[in-house]
Amino acid sequence: MLDQVQNDDVTAVMREIGKRARAAAHALAIAPTAVKNRALHAMANAIEADSDDILAANRKDVAAARENGISGAFINRLELDAAGIAAIAEGIRAIAALDDPIGDTIAEWDRPNGLTISRVRTPLGVIGVIYESRPNVTADAGALCLKAGNAVILRGGSDSARSARAIHTALKAGLAEAGLPEDAIQIVPTTDRAAVGEMLAGLSGNIDVIVPRGGKSLVARVQSEARVPVFAHLEGLCHIYVDKSADLDMARAIVVNAKMRRTGICGAAETLLIDRAAAEKFATPLIEALEDKGCLVRVDHDMIDYARGRDEADDTDWTTEYLDAIISVKLVDGISGAIEHIGKYSSHHTEAVIAEDHEVVARFFNEIDSAILLHNASTQFADGGEFGMGAEIGIATGKMHARGPVGVEQLTSFKYLVRGTGQTRT
Amino acid sequence: MLDQVQNDDVTAVMREIGKRARAAAHALAIAPTAVKNRALHAMANAIEADSDDILAANRKDVAAARENGISGAFINRLELDAAGIAAIAEGIRAIAALDDPIGDTIAEWDRPNGLTISRVRTPLGVIGVIYESRPNVTADAGALCLKAGNAVILRGGSDSARSARAIHTALKAGLAEAGLPEDAIQIVPTTDRAAVGEMLAGLSGNIDVIVPRGGKSLVARVQSEARVPVFAHLEGLCHIYVDKSADLDMARAIVVNAKMRRTGICGAAETLLIDRAAAEKFATPLIEALEDKGCLVRVDHDMIDYARGRDEADDTDWTTEYLDAIISVKLVDGISGAIEHIGKYSSHHTEAVIAEDHEVVARFFNEIDSAILLHNASTQFADGGEFGMGAEIGIATGKMHARGPVGVEQLTSFKYLVRGTGQTRT
């Protein structure tokens, strides 16, 4: 009912969107920093000026979702209020305040023949963002892609379609005010799922990378079907290893924070590994500290002596991202045992080691291949903002191009500029 | 006839190769630099020690190819002699001499909460290399991947299968001598084309990137069918733009070198663009200089006054990578015209501008999006060795991860190491 196009037009509509995005990307690639920032500030202002329209559209989305029997966390993610609008506008201004990565010289060196070679950042091109119910992704993703000189094609969930369109109207107004092409930020005008299929196929070469934002089933579909690169993580099955050399108070504070600060984010810890050599010292205090905060603890069979009466973990626990106040706990044979367990079960997102023994930390850092490894700090720092990157469009666990938080810098490519004085090759 | 496996076993054999490669990659990822270099030196020594076997195998390949009616450049690429063997061994030693990128800190910064974040290089994982007749690729690719801590699966052409296997035997001896897993460098034991299909499908997640080395039809197949990232260029349709501000002598030397030094390489110039405002000054001298070196010149209709009697270029010339002593020449309306033509026809590989006007150079560098842009230098410098990267496994025109020459550094990923003192997130 919200759709502006007929189903059988989806392919044609999407191809046209792709072509327009590519044309806009060419213009954005050479847009000066000041013009991009002017657009971003105008977008933030328009979001505030349009707040009544955006809130009205959002109320309709929320009402429709409730009619469809949706409730709970989903409505929370969907619902906007005045503070939410203000946060969106401030988020865009924060992106305007970031350094422009485009044109940055990443490396520069001279050759014996007198050539000077430099490697400078360029935009990636066209980013496709496929997301679910959070209306703010429309603004965050649009602004972040623009800052890095990329065009973006946004495909939001049908439940937040009215909100997304109202926000998109404000973004377009900002682009127009700065004289940038409105096609720089396009929103797919249909909720037909075939549109997602077209995006995953790459729109005839007019999408360079896809960023899915949403639950595991969305990300799984994107990862399995996409014919273009994807920046994503399927899950954050994050581990904490507490070594026998750890400080107990520090371990307690970090474990509780890593699990319980927010249980629903990808950087939340899901499995606690304790050095068998210090089980007596750590197991009971850490389990009790977690339980004090309301966490359900599922323990491996061989540590039941330290955790009588608790649920026993089975093999599925080591592969489960609870995203809830539940943790699995296991004894391992020191750092080697931790490395082995993490190597087997990790989603390559984020892992932490709590230890005072520097050899242990060195092995953890060297031998584990996850996007983010922390020493004596909470896994919940796995976040572009906490890394000082400003906004992030997501966290990637792949090893190609972007890994870890995907901020403005990760949305760029580069080219080589070679300066000569008449050199020819012999 | 050379195949060691039956056709119907190809899937099973390839999956097993993938698993072994992944296991080897885990071992290589933590192999110390000294061990990797010891393996490389042992490989080079083994290549020299086995030179009789390698040359005998190569003679059989060459004889079989001739029996199949193959001749000319193909045989040239296939045929090895004692100097070729020495060059392979020296190539491996040169890779041993390169800095090890693994573990390098690319960036490091502190956060206000006391966390220190560093970004360090890690191996990519498993590289699949699909190549044609050059036997040296077996050694070059194997050594380069090893240096960056990656396992490699090599699939050479059937015409060079005996040579590749003989070289591979030497590489395995080197790995064994250093105590590294022989599966670090595997060669596909069948010439069944289905094996390529299995590699392009990613071997159940056990290939991280594919590098095709060969002609356009091989690269095209890989690019269209691969379900994993590809580092490649389909073609090098390289342009030179001579601005009215150019120095004539410099332009002449560079244009002749860019086209004629070696006509069959991807960095050879294919189209010469001349500023219409200085056609009188440049057109005839540049055309005559090219013709003096034996180049066939195909000129655009509107410059026929400067090139009477030459072939007229048609629309197909602007999209043709001749890889031969042929060049297309066109007048354009200054730097804007050059940017427009290159934007329309470029393969995004390498382009050069010859100019003394810095505004012109700045626009060329800023507005053209190719992997390599040169000012007052020959396009034939588009090469990892010339860039000072040591060996290269190819040149990529994609914008994801690697772009331009793909050397040892481009075969790496990275991870974030975060060092704390007990930080938790508020």
How would you sum up this structure, described in words?
- The structure is a homodimer of 426-residue chains.
- In chain A, 40% of the residues lie in helices and 20% in strands.
- The first copy, chain A, has two domains: 237 residues, 3-Layer(aba) Sandwich (Aldehyde Dehydrogenase, Chain A, domain 1); 149 residues, Aldehyde Dehydrogenase, Chain A, domain 2 (3-Layer(aba) Sandwich), CATH 3.40.309.10.
- Chain A is globular, with a radius of gyration of 24 Å.
- In chain A, the strands form four sheets. Chain A has a seven-stranded parallel sheet, with helices on both faces.
- With 426 residues, the first copy, chain A, is of the alpha/beta class.
- In chain A, a hairpin with a 7-residue loop joins strand 14 and strand 15.
- The mean pLDDT of chain A is 95.
- The interface between A and B is large, with 60 and 60 residues.
How many strands, what sense, and barrel or not for the largest sheet of chain A?
Answer: 7 strands, parallel
The quaternary structure here is homodimer
For the termini of chain A, the CA-CA separation is 67 Å
State the fourth-level CATH superfamily of the largest domain in chain A: Aldehyde Dehydrogenase, Chain A, domain 1
Across the major sheet of chain A, the strand order is 10-9-11-8-7-12-13
Approximately what portion of the residues of chain A adopt beta-strand conformation?
A: 15-25%
Largest interface, C-beta closer than 8 angstroms, per-chain residues: A-B, 60 and 60 residues
Secondary-structure-based class of chain A equals alpha/beta
| CATH architecture group name of the largest domain in chain A | 3-Layer(aba) Sandwich
Radius of gyration of chain A: 24 Å
Which parts of chain A are unreliable, with pLDDT below 50 for 5 consecutive residues or more?
A: none
Which shape of chain A, going by the Cα principal axes?
A: globular
The CATH topology of the largest domain in chain A comes to: Aldehyde Dehydrogenase, Chain A, domain 1
**Number of alpha- plus pi-helical segments of chain A:** 13
Mean pLDDT of chain A: 95
Main location (chains A, B): cytoplasm
Pathway (chains A, B): Amino-acid biosynthesis; L-proline biosynthesis; L-glutamate 5-semialdehyde from L-glutamate: step 2/2
Pfam family, one (chains A, B): Aldedh
Catalytic activity (chains A, B): L-glutamate 5-semialdehyde + phosphate + NADP(+) = L-glutamyl 5-phosphate + NADPH + H(+)
